[in-house]
Amino acid sequence: MTDLDDTLPGLPVSRPTGVGLCLSGGGYRAMLFHLGTLWRLNDAGYLPKLTRISSVSGGSITAGLLGCTWRNLEFDQTGVAIDFLEHVVEPILAMGRYTLDVPAVLKGLLFGGVAHEVEGVYDRMLYHGATLQSLPDDNSGPRFIIMATDLSNGVGWRFSRPYMRDYKTANYPNPTLPLAQAVAASSAFPPFLSPVVLNLVDGKHATLTDGGVYDNLGIEPVLKNCGTIFVSDAGGPFKEEPRPHRGWILGTYRVLLTLQAEVGWLRKRQVMAALKSTTNDLKGAFWAVTTDPTDFPAFASTLPVPVTAAKRLGDTPTRLKALPDETLYGLVNWGYAAADAGLRSYVDPHLPEPPGFPLPGGVGV
């Protein structure tokens, strides 16, 4: 399986047979929505079928935890990890109750580096010293690809077990970089959490920022290497501002949000066009935190999600800030319901409806 042609335009003539999952950015909103996605995929027995999991920003927080705990998961005969709650759900819920962004900025300014503070919290709360070599190899689980953006050349940088690089730079095989540092780079949203500077083994440096700057859906490593793709998009809506800020700081921040929104729209159109094409045999489903639940043909009657609730959850700010349990549980339950609807509508119409939401409280009203 090659990675060198992943960034080239177009799709291969012959579709590969792998199953890929893409987890978008979006701060804690993404971290929690994607937790619901993974939970539904697990309950449906799909986790062992995945061959690639690509993630950016908030999606990388959740993907990184799944990756470094993969070897500890116990799968039953139906492909369900029976200890998923212990190894994945509970640590992510604890992370969602912890405010990271503002304290990291303040401590970083005082003590020598915002990125270092973010990395330290990720490692203490989630990864516990894991490195990229803690991720499963291709024979024991999916290839996890954590994406950042290389500021030196403007292309996507990839962290994985077999290598880290972008397609314009040298290859760094079998990296032992801390997983927390890779996730910190992937989620280093500018300007406050960015950049992350990697000291490479050959004496060079890589200056990285949020993976969503280049590819907010994380689709490039998956689209060319998998015949079936699932895309979980937790990017929030772009809010119109009748009177945008004109100052340098807030005005520049508005420009960054505009650029990221445009990248997201372009990537979404790329995915939807590929899924709808009749010439490339690509299968799969796309679901989003901003999706109207009634748009799914097979939305579960056992998982009611009012449109007003979906909109409210989609409006959760793109922050690494503690959330109340109502919002925290709601985002996980909404991700679970959206993934279920996507699976049963477009991939597996015979998949039974789940008995109910995995966490108490549903999604609110």
Give the key terms.
single chain, 365 residues, alpha/beta, 10-stranded mixed β-sheet, 14% strand, globular
**Largest sheet entry:** 10 strands, mixed
- Helical content (DSSP H or I, runs of 4+): 25-40%
**Silhouette:** globular
H-E string: EHEHHHHEEEEHEEHHEHEHH
Uncertain residue segments: 1-13
Per DSSP, the total helix count is: 11
Oligomer status: single chain
Overall mean pLDDT stands at 88
Can you count the beta strands? 10
Radius of gyration: 19 Å
> Which structural category fits the helices and strands?
alpha/beta
How much of the residues is beta strand, in percent?
A: 5-15%
Terminal CA distance: 46 Å
Write the layout of secondary structure elements.
Elements: E1 19-23, H1 27-43, E2 52-56, H2 58-69, H3 84-96, H4 101-111, H5 114-127, E3 143-150, E4 155-159, E5 163-165, E6 172-173, H6 179-186, E7 196-199, E8 205-210, H7 212-215, H8 220-223, E9 228-233, H9 248-276, E10 283-288, H10 307-314, H11 325-346
Helix pairs in contact: 1-2, 1-3, 1-11, 2-3, 2-6, 4-5, 5-6
Q: Could you describe the 3D structure shown?
A:
The N terminus is likely disordered. The chain is an alpha/beta fold and 365 residues long. Strand 7 and strand 8 form a beta hairpin. The protein is built from 11 helices and 10 strands. The chain starts with 18 loop residues before the first strand and ends in a 19-residue tail after the last helix. Strands 1, 2, 3, 4, 5, 6, 7, 8, 9 and 10 form a 10-stranded mixed β-sheet that branches.
